[in-house]
Design a protein that fits this description.
Elements (H helix, E strand, L loop, with lengths): L2 E8 L2 E8 L2 E8 L2 H7 L7 H17 L2 H15 L4 H18 L12 H4 L1 H20 L9 H12 L13 E6 L3 E6 L4 H14 L4 E3 L6 E3 L20 H16 L1 H18 L5 H20 L4 H8 L2
Antiparallel strand pairs: 1-2, 2-3, 4-5, 6-7
Helix pairs in contact: 2-3, 3-4, 6-7, 9-10, 10-11, 10-12, 11-12
Length: about 325
């Protein structure tokens, strides 16, 4: 093969290293991020991309015209931008196409399986549903909180297998290799996208990585040491703000509505701002007070000072 592709986990990071024509590239993400990104990828929105590859492949096998091989490679480049797992898909099919070209596209039907292209969206969609069910029943922080992960995993599979609704873990091409600056670790050299999903999903099980549903966007996010976190770090719509930032704002607004001490800050702010119009205070003095008041308010919200201390400061 004219490429290599490796995936492995190091601490709280997951790494992807791939080499194409002696050009090595490396990408890393927070552990489980690639799995969650795939879970919420709208694969059907890209269905036509895979259908086009299928049409081009049929024309290639029929006419042996390399123009169609080039068109497929262009589509593979587009697919690779959707998700890191499709980078492997691109490299693998590039290699298959080059091998087929070396054979003048003679007797290459088994080398270039048509369904492996056109069935990608439905296969990914099926795996998305399987992953979501596994998270909900096993790794969700609210699922059987009194049971260990392995017990929940055992119960889930005993109750549901054999079934297409549960993810099937298969033998993996995993080696024990020396990775620079890290040492010897388990390294996946996948044969398919399924292998990559399988590898990182079982890593979540092995290391008992728990997940929560974000209260803002409704999507799963990995729970870190701050298990009480209710919001994820994803950007929400086109606002540019993350769910965590939006959640903090919503929490603050609720506090304003229910806590008279925090509400006092807003009353003081509006009162002093009105003083500028009546020349009872300069703009410079107002903004200096505002900056200090915001800092005190944030300390109160963070619990660094009591609300009583904050209210006393406001009334000075």
């Amino acid at each position: 093969m004219a490429y290599t592709f490796q995936a492995y986990r190091v601490g709280d990071r997951e790494c992807f290293v791939y080499d194409e024509n002696n050009r090595e590239r490396k990408m890393d993400f927070a552990f489980s991020q690639s799995l969650l990104d795939l879970l919420y990828l709208d694969i059907w929105a890209h269905g036509e991309l895979f259908e086009k590859m299928g049409r081009d492949l049929r024309e290639l096998l029929s006419t042996k015209n390399e123009t169609f091989a080039t068109s497929i490679k262009n589509s593979l480049d587009c697919a690779a931008k959707l998700h890191i797992y499709f980078e492997f898909f691109r490299l693998d099919w590039y290699d298959k196409l080059d091998q087929a070209a070396a054979q003048n596209f003679e007797k290459v039907t088994s080398l270039l399986p048509y369904k492996k292209l056109t069935h990608i969206p439905s296969e990914i969609h099926t795996m998305q549903e399987q992953i979501n069910k596994l998270l909900f029943n096993v790794l969700d922080v609210t699922a059987g909180q009194d049971k260990p992960v392995q017990v929940k995993m055992t119960d889930y599979y005993r109750q549901n297998r054999p079934s297409l609704e549960v993810f099937s873990f298969e033998p993996l091409p995993v080696g024990f290799e020396l990775v620079d600056n890290i040492g010897f670790i388990e390294v996946l050299r996948p044969n398919s996208i399924y292998d990559i999903i399988d590898y990182f999903l079982r890593e979540c099980i092995k290391h008992e990585q728990l997940f929560k549903v974000c209260k803002n966007c409704g999507k799963y996010f990995a729970v870190s040491s701050y298990i009480n976190t209710e919001y994820c770090d994803r950007e929400y719509n086109a606002t540019g703000k993350t769910c965590k930032e939006i959640g903090a704002t919503q929490t603050y607004r609720k506090k304003i509505q229910t806590d008279p001490d925090i509400g006092e800050y807003n009353r003081q702010y509006k009162k002093r701002f009105a003083w500028i119009r009546y020349r009872r205070i300069t703009q410079e003095a107002f903004y200096a007070w505002s900056k200090e008041a915001q800092a005190m308010r944030d300390k109160a919200l963070a619990g660094e000072i009591s609300l009583e201390q904050f209210k006393a400061w406001l009334n000075e």
